[in-house]
């Protein structure tokens, strides 16, 4: 939930997320299809709060969570609800973007959510007091790094790595993007995409979604337990713009 990339391709899009977590946090469950009131959801489940950081709806909508808003904040628990459960609330709605604008976020820790909503790409930021929504160009690649872990200079450095990689991989497969998320950096373990800060905080998993016109698939690389999982889901409908 701390590094996210979005890459459009011919007739499909890719959303990939690195999850950076404390060593003490419980293991997540690998991706499964779950029933919800609005339809089926595909996501890995957090082992503590039961929420998620990345999810796909059978409508073709998708959402990915990053910790923090515009700037680093000092946590002030207890919070009313985990951000991973908020993400599930958003993705279960017919429109995650509309839900972000209306959902109660009082006493929720700051977060950023990247949403694919009916084929359109959006970025929603909750800074702890106000919510901010902006449309993103879904025809171009994007990268996000969580402000809670990476300062302005490091985020800019990662942006540069991404742009250099895109020159070499102008028509990537999902596997190529997962490799970018695992192997890119300059040898600084504190800030490489696969990060490790004294074995206290490190990248525990990489999750990638490939979303097409009638089917989505999710690849989950559990780095903590050396497991790889693949799940897929047919869509009940699909965005006409893909």
The CATH architecture? 4-Layer Sandwich
**Structural domain tally:** 1
Q: Would you identify the regions where 5 or more consecutive residues have pLDDT less than 50? A: none
Largest sheet: 7 strands, antiparallel
Number of strands: 14
| Overall average residue pLDDT | 94
Which structural class do the helices and strands define? alpha+beta
User: What is the quaternary state of this protein?
Assistant: single chain
CATH superfamily: Penicillin V Acylase, Chain A
Count helical runs. Answer: 4
β-strand amount = 35-45%
CATH third-level topology: Penicillin V Acylase, Chain A
Helical content (DSSP H or I, runs of 4+): 10-25%
In the CATH scheme, the class would be Alpha Beta
Rg from Cα = 16 Å
Note the overall shape: globular
Q: Give the CA-CA distance, first to last residue.
A: 25 Å
């Amino acid at each position: 939930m701390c590094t996210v990339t979005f890459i459009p391709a011919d007739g499909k899009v890719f959303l990939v997320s690195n999850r950076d977590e404390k060593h003490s946090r419980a293991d997540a469950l690998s991706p499964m299809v779950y029933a919800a009131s609005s339809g089926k959801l595909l996501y890995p489940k957090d082992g503590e709060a039961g929420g998620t950081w990345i999810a796909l709806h059978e409508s073709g909508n998708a959402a990915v969570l990053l910790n923090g808003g515009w700037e680093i904040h000092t946590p002030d628990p207890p919070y009313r609800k985990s951000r991973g459960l908020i993400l599930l609330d958003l993705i279960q709605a017919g429109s995650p973007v509309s839900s972000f604008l209306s959902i109660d976020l009082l006493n929720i820790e700051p977060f950023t959510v990247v949403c694919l909503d009916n084929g359109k790409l959006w970025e929603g930021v909750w800074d702890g007091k106000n919510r901010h929504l902006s449309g993103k160009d879904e025809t171009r690649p994007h990268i996000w790094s969580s402000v809670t872990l990476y300062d302005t200079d490091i985020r800019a450095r990662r942006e540069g790595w991404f742009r250099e990689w895109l020159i070499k991989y102008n028509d990537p497969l999902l596997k190529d993007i997962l490799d970018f998320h695992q192997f890119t950096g300059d040898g600084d373990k504190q800030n490489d995409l696969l990060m490790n800060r004294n074995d206290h905080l490190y990248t525990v998993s990489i999750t990638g979604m490939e979303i097409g016109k009638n089917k989505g698939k999710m690849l989950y690389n559990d780095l903590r337990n050396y497991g790889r999982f693949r799940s897929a889901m047919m869509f009940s409908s699909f965005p006409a713009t893909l």
